[in-house]
Automatic annotation (TrEMBL):
Subcellular location: Cell membrane
SUPFAM superfamilies: MetI-like (SSF161098)
Lineage: Bacteria, Bacillati, Bacillota, Bacilli, Lactobacillales
Keywords (A to Z) from UniProt: Cell membrane, Membrane, Transmembrane, Transmembrane helix, Transport
Record organism: Candidatus Enterococcus testudinis
Protein's name in the database: ABC transmembrane type-1 domain-containing protein
Gene3D superfamilies: MetI-like
C-alpha cells in the first residue's frame, strides 16, 4: 500500500507539469495586457516598459514558463498577484475555507440524499417509485448549476424573501448555494447507487443470505450496500473534485468569497498569476482526493488490500 501511495504521489509531478503548461499557454495567448490593467491607460511608454520588465513579460514564452515552474517546484512559490501584490498562495488560503466548506457540505447533502434514493430504486426496480426517483435524478443532472442558482434566488429571495442572496457565514446563507451545487450530484449518486446495487442484488451470495432467512434490511444494508459502495465512493470523490472547480459560478452568483470568485476576478483583470496558481492548486486537491478514494477502497473491500500487500 505504501509503495502504491508513493507511486501515485510521484505521478503528481508530470500531471502538475501538464496542467501548468496548458494553463500557462492559454493565459499567454489570451487577449488583454496585464501591464495595462496594473498601470491604467495613462501610463507613459517608459513606465509601461519598466513594468513589463518587472513582471517578466519581456522574456519569451518558454523562458517565462521555465522560471514559473522553477519557482513552483523548488520554492513552492506560485508567484504574486499583479493587482494586489500579495502572494498567490496567501490569496488562495484566505479564501480556501469557504470553497472547502461549500464543496464538503454539498457532497455531504448529495450523499445523504442520493444513496438512500438509489437504494430505494434498486430494491423496487421498474416500479413507480423507481421511475419517479430516476426522473427526478435526470432533472437534477440535466439542469445547469448556475441556472438552478438563479431560480433559487428568484424564488426564495426576490419572491418569498426567505433567504439572503449573498454571503456564506450563516446557515441561512448556505442553504441556496449548497442546494444548487448538491442537486446535480444527488442525481448522479442516486443513479450510480441504483445501478451498482442492482448488480449486487443479483449475486448468488445475496440469494443465499435470503435463503438462510436474513431479513430484507440485513440483506440490503449489510450485504448488498457495502459490496456496491466502490463505484459510489468513486463517483462521490469525483463529484467532490468537480465541485471544487464547479463552484466558480456558484460562488460568483452568491457573492461567496472563495477561490472561484478569486479566479473569476483574476480572469477579468488579467491577473495571470492568480489564474495559474488557482488552477494548479485545484488540480492538486483533485488529485489528492482521487488518491484518498483509492486508499479508501482497501478499507471498504478487503480483497483490494490484498492486491497491494
Amino acid at each position: 500500500m505504501l509503495q502504491y501511495v508513493v507511486k501515485r504521489i510521484l505521478w503528481l509531478i508530470p500531471i502538475m507539469l501538464g496542467v501548468s503548461f496548458i494553463v500557462f499557454t492559454i493565459m499567454y495567448m489570451s487577449p488583454g495586457d496585464p501591464v495595462t490593467m496594473v498601470l491604467g491607460e495613462g501610463a507613459t511608454p517608459e513606465q509601461y516598459e519598466a513594468m513589463r520588465i518587472q513582471m517578466g513579460l519581456d522574456k519569451g514564452f518558454f523562458e517565462q514558463f521555465f522560471h514559473y515552474i522553477k519557482d513552483v517546484i523548488f520554492d513552492f512559490d506560485l508567484g504574486k498577484s499583479h493587482i494586489s501584490g500579495r502572494s498567490v498562495m496567501e490569496e488562495i488560503l484566505v479564501r480556501l475555507p469557504n470553497t472547502i466548506k461549500l464543496a464538503v457540505l454539498s457532497v455531504f447533502v448529495a450523499s445523504c440524499i442520493g444513496i438512500p434514493l438509489g437504494v430505494i430504486s434498486a430494491t423496487r426496480p421498474y416500479s413507480k417509485t423507481d421511475n419517479v426517483v430516476m426522473f427526478l435524478s435526470l432533472i437534477g443532472v440535466s439542469m445547469p448549476t448556475f441556472w438552478q442558482a438563479l431560480l433559487l434566488i428568484i424564488l426564495f429571495t426576490s419572491t418569498l424573501g426567505w433567504l439572503p442572496a449573498s454571503g456564506f457565514t450563516t446557515w441561512q446563507q448556505m442553504i441556496m448555494p449548497v442546494t444548487a451545487l448538491a442537486s446535480s450530484s444527488v442525481g448522479t449518486i442516486a443513479r450510480i447507487t441504483r445501478s451498482s446495487m442492482m448488480d449486487v442484488l443479483d449475486q448468488d451470495y445475496i440469494r443465499t443470505a435470503k435463503a438462510k432467512g436474513a431479513s430484507p434490511v440485513t440483506v440490503t444494508f449489510s450485504h448488498a450496500l457495502r459490496n456496491s459502495l466502490l463505484p459510489v465512493v468513486t463517483v462521490i470523490g469525483l463529484q467532490f473534485g468537480a465541485l471544487l472547480g464547479g463552484a466558480v459560478l456558484t460562488e460568483t452568483i452568491f457573492s461567496i468569497n472563495g477561490i472561484g470568485t478569486l479566479m473569476v476576478n483574476a480572469i477579468r483583470t488579467r491577473d495571470t498569476m492568480i489564474v495559474q496558481g488557482g488552477v494548479l492548486f485545484i488540480a492538486f486537491i483533485f488529485s489528492m482526493v482521487n488518491l484518498s478514494v483509492d486508499i479508501l477502497y482497501a478499507y471498504i473491500d478487503p480483497r483490494i488490500k490484498t492486491m497491494y500487500d
